[in-house]
Every structure is written in C-alpha cells, then in structure tokens.
Automatic annotation (TrEMBL), chain A:
GO terms for molecular function: 2 iron, 2 sulfur cluster binding; metal ion binding; oxidoreductase activity. The keyword Oxidoreductase applies. This is Ubiquinol-cytochrome C reductase iron-sulfur subunit (EC). PANTHER family: CYTOCHROME B-C1 COMPLEX SUBUNIT RIESKE, MITOCHONDRIAL.
TrEMBL record, chain B:
One of its GO terms (cellular component) is membrane. PROSITE patterns: CYTB_CTER, CYTB_NTER. The chain crosses the membrane at residues 41-68, 98-119, 126-148, 193-214, 263-281, 322-341, 353-375, 381-403. The keyword ATP-binding does not apply. Residues 244-412 form the Cytochrome b/b6 C-terminal region profile domain. One of its GO terms (biological process) is respiratory electron transport chain. This is Ubiquinol--cytochrome c reductase, cytochrome B subunit (EC).
TrEMBL record, chain C:
The keyword Protease does not apply. The keyword Glycoprotein does not apply. GO terms for molecular function: electron transfer activity; heme binding; metal ion binding. Keywords: Heme, Iron, Membrane, Metal-binding, Transmembrane, Transmembrane helix. The lineage of its organism: Bacteria, Pseudomonadati, Campylobacterota, Epsilonproteobacteria, Campylobacterales. The chain crosses the membrane at residues 332-350. Residues 111-202 form the Cytochrome c domain. This is Ubiquinol cytochrome C oxidoreductase, cytochrome C1 subunit. It comes from uncultured Sulfurovum sp. InterPro entries: Cyt_c-like_dom, Cyt_c-like_dom_sf, Ubol_Cyt_c_Rdtase_Cyt_c_su_prd. It comes from the Bacteria.
Length: 167, 412, 359
C-alpha cells in the first residue's frame, strides 16, 4: 500500500491518542481528593482546655495530634508554640520510624513508642541510639487568639519551617 | 514442543511468534478475516456496539469509585457526590446514561438490519441466537443499573418488574420475596442488583460478546444482496495484491479496510453521542428519578425506559394472566426467528414479496407499541391502539411461517 | 454512496419518529390537563402579576365542570348534592373576585413609607428571625421582602393572608392561618403605608441564596447546601474519644422536631429541594411557584408571592445546587465535540483511501 495510507492512518491514530490524553486528564481529576475532603483539612484546637503536663490528643486530617502544655520544669525549645506566654508542644502523634502512635509516660516525661522502642522528649525530639530518625513532625498551624488552627501556615509556623524545626 | 528460534531477541517479532503465534492470530482475527465488499454502513453497528460497551465499562468504573450501594446513601452519592464533588463525575454519569440508552438504539438497528437482510439463517442461526442472548443480557444489565440511583422510578420499576415473577394467578409471592430478599425493594434488593450490575452480568456479557464474535467466524457476515461469496477464491485474489485482482475479489480484510469504514461511522456516531451527553441528556435521565425513593408514594406515571416500552405495552392491554403470557412470549419469540422463517432465501426483504410487508409492519408495530407504552393508559383511544398493536404483534409472528413457506425461491 | 444515504435517511427517519413519540409527544400527552368539556387547559405563567386571574381561571373551570355535571345528572338526589357544590363554588368564585378587586383599589392608594415604619415594626414581633415556630410554621425573615415579593401580593397578604396565598380552602373549617389574626385589623391606608415601607426600605437586592433562605427555607430544606428548615446547619466537631458529634445530634433532633410540627401543619413534610430543578420542568416550577393550585389542586403549599425578579433569584439558586455541572459542561462541550468532528474527518479520509481501488 502507498505511503499515503500510512500517513492517514497514523494521523488518525495520533489524533486519537491526543484525545485519549484528554480522557486521562478527566480520569486523573476523578481520582483527586474531593473538595469536601480538602475543606475538612483544618482543625481548630481550643487551648484553654489544655492542662499543664497532661498531653491531649486531637485529630487533624485523620491523624492523631499531641498538644502538651509544658510545665515550668519542662525544658523550653525552639519547637515550642508560644500562646499567651504559655509554651505548648504540638506534633503529629506518629512515630517518625514507622508511624505507630507513641504513648506519654508521665513519670519519665517522654513519649514512648511501643512498636520498636522509640522515645521522644517533651519537645518531640527523638532520643539518640533508637530507631526514630527525626523528631515528631509539627503540623502547619496558625495562632488565632487562644486557639490553634491546624492546616494553615501562620507566621510562627513559617519561622520554624525556615529553621528546619518542623520535621 | 514446537521448534523455537534460539537466537531470536527477547520480545522480538520472531520470539513472540514462537511463543504466541502472533502473526497467525493477527491473520485470523484481522488481516485475513474476510468481510464481503458488498456492504453498507449498517454493517458497522457491531463495532459501534462493542465501542459503546467499552465506553459504558470505563464510565462505569469511575462511577463505581464513589457510588454507595445503600438505601440511605445511594441517591445522594449519585446526585450529590458524583454530580457536585467528583472531578468530571457528571461527565461519567452523563456518558453512562446516554450510553445505556444509545446502546439499545444500536442494538435495535443491528437486529432489524439482520432481519431485513436475512442474516439469521442457513448457517447463521447461532449468530442470531447469541445476539439475542446479548439483547436479553443487556436488558438485565440496564434494568439492574436503573435500580442504583434509588430514585422513585428505580424503586417503583423494581417493585413492578419483580412483581411480574408472581406469575399472575400462580401467586408465587414467595418467589418475588426471594428475588427481593425482602417484602419490598429494600437494602437486600439494592445490594444484590448492585452486585449483578457491576460484576456478574458484565462478566457474562463479555463472555457472550466473545461467543457472538466466534459464531461469525465460520459462516462469515452476510452482504447486502445475500449473495453466496466464494471466500477462498476471493481471498486468493485479494492476496495476489494487484489492483486488478483486488477489484475482482469480492472480499476485503477486516483490518484495515473494513475497520476504516467502521471507524468513520463510529466518528459520526460519537458526534451524536457527545452532543447528547452535553446538551440533551435529560431524555436518558428521567425527571421522576430525581425524587428519592419513597415506598409510600407512587409517581403519577410509571413507565420503563424507552427501549422496554414495546414489551411493556404488550403486557398492558390484557388481563393479568394473559398479559403475563403475552409478555413472556414477546421476550423470547425473536429467538425463534430462524426457525419460524421457512424460506430458504437469504436476501434483502425488498426481494422477498410478502416478507417485505411483514418486515415493515413489524417495525412500525413495535414503534407504535413503544409510543403507547409511555402514554397514560387511561385514554380509551390510546388503550385501543395499544390492544390492536399487541394483537398484531402476535398475528404477525403466527403468520410468519405461512408467509415464508410459500415464498418464491429466488435462486438455487 | 447514494444507496447508503437512502438507508441513512430511513434510519434517521425511524429514529427521529421514535424520539418524537417517547419524548415530546408523550410528555405533552402525560401532562395535559383537560376541563369538563375535554378541552385542553393551558396553564401559563402570568409573569408573576397577582390580580386574581389564576384564581378566576381555576374557579372558572371548577364551576363550568359542575354546571355540566348538574345538567347531565338525571336522578334528583345526586343532582341536589351537585347543585349545592355548584352554589358553594360560585360563592368562592365571587368572594375571590371581590377580594382581588379590593386589593386593586388599595394598590392605587399612595403609600407613605415613613408612616408605614411603625406598622412594620409590629411585624417584627413574629418576623424576628428567631426561628421560632408559630402556629405550625416559622415566620419568614423580611430583610429583602420589598425586593422579593410583589406589591399586590403584599397588600393582599396584609388584608387576608389565606386568600392572598390561595390556601383559604385549608382554613375553611375551624383552624386559622398562622397570620390570620391580621385579617381586617388594618385600614386600607395602613396597608398601603406598610407595603410602601417594605418596597422602599427592605428592597436591597438579595443574593440567590438569600432569596431562597427567606422565601422557601421555613418549609423546604436544601440538604446539598447543608440548609435545613432551621436555616444553615452549624459547623460542629465530633468528640474524638467517642466518635460522636453531640452538637450535630442535638441539631438533628431540633430539625426533626421542627419537621414534625411542620408536617402536622402542612399535612406532609414539604420536600427537600436539592434536586427539584431536575425533577420538575422549568414550566412547572414557574407556574407552581406563582400559584401552586394551578398544578396541584388542593395542595397546602401557599402561593409564595414572588415578583418576577424574586423568582429569578430563587430559580438561580435551585440551578446552582441542582445542576452544578452546567459551567463545566459549557467549557468541555466545544472541545469534545470539536475533537470528534476532526476525528470523523480524518477517519473519512483514511476510509476513502483504503477503499479507493476496490470497485
């Protein structure tokens, strides 16, 4: 058969492939998280409920969050969130090793992960020589009065991020 | 074990041929699958149906990702989540709805093409029977899919159609409850029809499509004059490859020659298809089904989708038992066409005398039945026309063997 | 080629015929309404002008139907029953006619907005936005009343709420319209003044959603926009220790109680309107909202009294919620259709080439 046949056949094939890419784009958009899921990505935490030395657990984007109002004895850290003069440790309560939830040991003032024995102090810093490779992750937050809005990046968060303190 | 070429490069043509007989497969299915030259665009309906089924499958997959098969969640998952939240969810839903409607239009065109050209007999009986089997399977698929949005029409269509299985005076309500898994269509009913729609029926349909293709391979497709084509001689002429010999050959290979025409016809079809998807989708999405299912309130008018109207109308004008029997016969009578047509002629209806009248009467009768099926039964004029058309439907079928028995033989 | 076009013409003809029969023709036949003589009644919108025309039309059909039945009835006893019904229908017909005539005279009075302010202030006792059910239903917020409702309707409402809303049949026995106590308490001039006040001071243009919230929400929910009979549903948070959202549960109970009161008062729970724009035709919605009795005789839904502009706002909101994909469709349509047109042209060229030397 002549070359023209190849040309027309290939033109049609190429054009169809271009259309298929359009179809794949629609398919990709269908796989995206729904707008309602995205909109639900913010959690407001009322800090007035926090008790010194007693971590409370909140939920943000389906993950557990530690909020610990520090007592005077607990060492201060650049990772602390300061609201109204009080210092808070706020982090995603998932061990940076393999994602288990550490439990707070009041006697030792540490977060202990039962899965592989990882330990974090009250600033979320991982103790050396144990499996976790990095401190507990700090979620994006914004301070609004006496509340903390998780999911939006306030100036305090951006400052920490700049200093590589959030992870 | 067959001989293989040890030196062939992995995944090269020779390597694949040794293992999969790729060249042979391509020949059998494509380049040496011979189609008569003497055809028109109606011969493209089979590929259009295959393409539409593919489109229904793909759009269905995306709908399935967000559809919730519970009586509490179904309506909102379709009308809110898919239509409002999911990116291009509306596109999949419109494509799925339009596809479900158009697939029946093409099936009917495909069927009546076969009837007109006599493509169901003298070696082609299994093509017809497997095709009718596909029609029944698609009907079941359409009905089960119609349940899923769980609107008023879903609920009441489910109620009415499952009630048919009580068998009239047989009062087999136990059977009806068994089908529903409940006294009325409820969670059990929705769950099992969901399963049928997304798993069991599609699997069976895919199998039946393969079977339908297989039935074509030996007798080959018919042509528009019903001529006996000498496929071997024509294939030889085609393979000779000269312009002269190809002109003399009565056949063309499925790919690329036949396919090029199919794809052009498909293009025209897709323009219509997507015009409907964007601008005229309402005809495939009944307004009544945008009211959520309510078991305590029947809609003012209940009617099936347009493609079931003719058989629904056959049920309606008679008393309960007679109607059910008529309905049951109407569902299966087309299967018997190859055996009720007693004439040996394979030719277009225009050359078959009385059969030509039979064909057009049958077509018009089914269209009239379709009209009447949607109109309210309260009007006596409509009810009368419905009754006459339903009776005519059976008279035509009863007359078919006699009309065709005395048909003049066209050629030996 | 010629033959193919002929075949195509046959296929197109029968497909078109089929479409015509199951769509336009069937819908026409299904939704047609007939009077006693079998003539088709055309229900048309009156452009949201409220002057008693729709009442006169509906009552005219009822009276004509009864007159025919009285004529046809042979035996004396049923004839007497029918005659009594006819007399009652004629009575209603004349009462309505004189009511709307009076509304017309009030409309011609010049209203004084300043004088109307005091009168309007007394409306606030009930129309206070506190979501308190009074006599079966929550009194609507009037913030945009002047922009949403027709002047004649407002006059009629202050004169006799049941007559204005064309639901007087509901209160024929002993019960009273929740706003019925106002009937006959205001002079014609006072009515004109209060209406003038609303038309001047409560006439800021509402958004589509505000229009819906004020005109429809006390009875109809809109769950796809998180709107209940009590208005916008509050944002609440679950207790992560129990997984339950107690505030949401309490709110759901409040809504359920309000719905129960409403359902008792209306006879049934008015439907959620999230999908109504897909479930009913545009023509139905327009005539139904203008006067529900034209489409559903005997319904307890009152006339809403929207002006044309008010209706357009409400309609816009129903479209926004019920058919949200319209903008996306309009963007995608030319691309997809254009693609297939070019696809078909290319396919035709390919086909022509493949078939060139075949005959």
């Amino acid at each position: 058969m002549s070359t023209r046949r190849d040309f027309m056949g290939m033109a049609l094939g190429g054009f169809t492939a271009a259309g298929a890419i359009g179809g794949l784009y629609a398919a990709k958009r269908t796989w995206d998280p729904l707008p309602s899921v995205k909109a639900a990505g913010s959690t407001v935490i009322d800090l007035s409920e926090a008790i010194e030395g007693e971590p409370m657990t909140e939920k943000w984007r389906g993950k557990p969050i530690f909020v610990l109002k520090k007592t005077a004895e607990m060492p201060a850290h650049d990772r602390d969130v300061v609201v109204d003069g009080a210092r808070y440790h706020v982090s995603i309560a998932l061990c940076t090793h393999l994602g288990c939830i550490p439990a707070y040991k009041k006697a030792d003032q540490t977060f202990f992960c039962a899965c592989h024995g990882g330990v974090f102090d009250t600033s979320g810093t991982n103790l050396p020589g144990l499996p976790p490779p990095s401190p507990l992750e700090i979620p994006p937050f914004k301070i609004e009065g006496n509340t903390l809005v998780l999911g939006s990046e306030g100036p305090e968060y951006l400052e920490m991020k700049k200093n590589n303190l959030v992870v | 074990m067959a001989k293989i070429d040890e030196k062939a490069f992995p995944f090269s043509k020779q390597w694949l041929d040794d293992r999969l007989a790729l060249t042979t497969v391509m020949k059998v299915l494509n380049t040496e699958y011979w189609i008569p030259k003497n055809i028109n665009f109606l011969w493209a309906m089979g590929m259009i149906l295959a393409a539409t089924f593919g489109i229904l499958l793909i759009s269905g997959i995306f709908l399935l990702m967000y559809y919730v098969p519970t009586v509490e969640g179904a309506f909102d998952s379709v009308n809110y989540t898919i239509m409002t939240e999911v990116g291009y969810g509306w596109l999949w839903r419109h494509i799925h709805g339009i596809g479900a409607s158009l697939v029946f239009l093409i099936i009917y065109i495909h069927m009546f093409t076969g009837i007109y050209y006599g493509s169901y007999k003298r070696g082609r009986e299994m093509i017809w029977i497997s095709g009718m089997l596909l029609f029944v399977l698609f009907s079941a698929e359409a009905f089960s899919g119609y349940m899923l949005p769980w609107g008023q029409m879903s609920y009441w269509a489910g109620m009415v159609i499952t009630n048919l299985f009580s068998g009239g005076s047989l009062e087999a309500y136990g059977l009806v409850e068994w089908i529903r898994g409940d006294y009325v269509p409820g969670q059990a009913f929705l769950g099992r029809f969901f399963m049928l729609h997304v798993l069991l029926l599609p699997l069976v349909i895919i199998g039946a499509i393969v079977f339908h293709f297989a039935t074509l391979r030996l007798p080959h497709v018919n042509n528009q004059d019903g001529e006996e084509v000498d496929f071997e001689e024509s294939a030889r002429l085609w393979k000779e490859g000269t312009v002269e010999s190809r002109k003399k050959s009565e056949v063309i290979p499925f790919s690329p020659v036949f396919l090029s025409k199919d794809i052009f016809v498909m293009g025209v079809y897709f323009i219509l298809f997507f015009y409907l998807v964007f601008y005229n989708f309402n005809f495939a999405m009944d307004p009544v089904n945008f009211d959520p299912a309510d078991g305590l309130k029947t809609p003012a008018h209940i009617y099936p989708e347009w493609y079931f109207l003719w058989s629904y109308e056959i049920l309606r004008p008679f008393s309960k038992d007679l109607g059910l029997i008529a309905f049951a016969i109407a569902q299966v009578i087309f299967f018997a066409l190859p055996f009720l047509d007693r004439s040996p002629n394979v030719a277009p209806a225009s050359k078959r005398g009385l059969f030509q009248i039979w064909f057009w009467l049958m077509l018009v009768d089914i269209i009239v039945l379709t009209f009447m099926g949607k109109l309210p039964p309260t009007d006596p004029a409509f009810a009368f026309i419905g009754l006459v058309s339903a009776v005519l439907f059976f008279v035509l079928w009863a007359a078919l063997p006699f009309i065709t028995m005395f048909e003049k033989k066209i050629k030996e | 080629m010629n033959k193919e076009l002929k075949i195509l013409a046959v296929v197109v003809f029968f497909t078109g015929l089929l479409y015509w029969g199951v769509e336009p023709y069937a819908h026409h036949a299904m939704h047609a309404k007939y009077d006693g003589q079998g003539n088709e009644i055309k229900i048309e919108s009156h452009g949201f002008v409220y002057d008693g025309t729709t009442e006169a039309n509906v009552n005219g059909v009822i009276v004509a139907d009864l007159e025919r039945k009285v004529m046809e009835e042979g035996s004396p006893e049923p004839k007497a029953v029918l005659a009594a019904k006819l007399a009652a229908a004629k009575d209603i017909q004349s009462k309505k006619a004189s009511f709307w005539k009076e509304v017309g005279t009030i409309a011609e009075l010049k209203g004084d907005a300043t004088a109307g302010e005091a009168g309007f202030a007394s409306c606030m006792g009930c129309h206070n936005g506190l979501n308190m059910n009074m006599g079966g239903v929550i009194p609507p917020n009037l913030d945009h009343a002047g922009a949403l409702y027709d002047k004649n309707y407002l006059i009629a409402l202050l004169k006799d709420p049941a007559m204005a809303s064309n639901v007087d049949h509901k209160y024929a026995d002993t019960s009273m319209h929740p706003m019925g106590s106002i009937k006959g308490t205001m002079s014609h001039q006072q009515i004109a003044d209060v209406v003038a006040f609303m038309k001047e001071k409560k006439a800021a243009e509402p958004t589509a959603k505000q229009a819906f919230m004020e005109a429809c929400v006390r009875c109809h929910a809109m769950r796809y926009d998180k709107v209940t009979q009590l208005g916008e549903a509050p944002k609440t948070k679950e207790n992560i220790k129990t997984g339950h959202d107690i505030e949401a549960m309490k709110y759901a109970q409040k809504v359920a109680e309000e719905q129960a009161t409403l359902a008792t008062y209306m006879g049934k729970l008015p439907p959620d309107l999230s999908m109504i724009i897909r479930a009913r035709s545009g023509h139905f919605m327009e005539t139904f909202i203008e006067d529900p009795q034209t489409q559903l005789p005997g319904t307890s839904m009152p006339r809403v009294g929207l002006s044309e502009e008010g209706y357009e706002k409400v309609h816009q909101y129903l479209m926004d919620i019920g058919d949200p994909s319209k903008p996306a469709r309009d963007i995608a349509a030319p691309w997809v259709l254009g693609f297939f047109v070019i696809f078909t042209i290319l396919a035709y060229l390919w086909k022509r080439h493949q078939w060139k030397d075949l005959h």
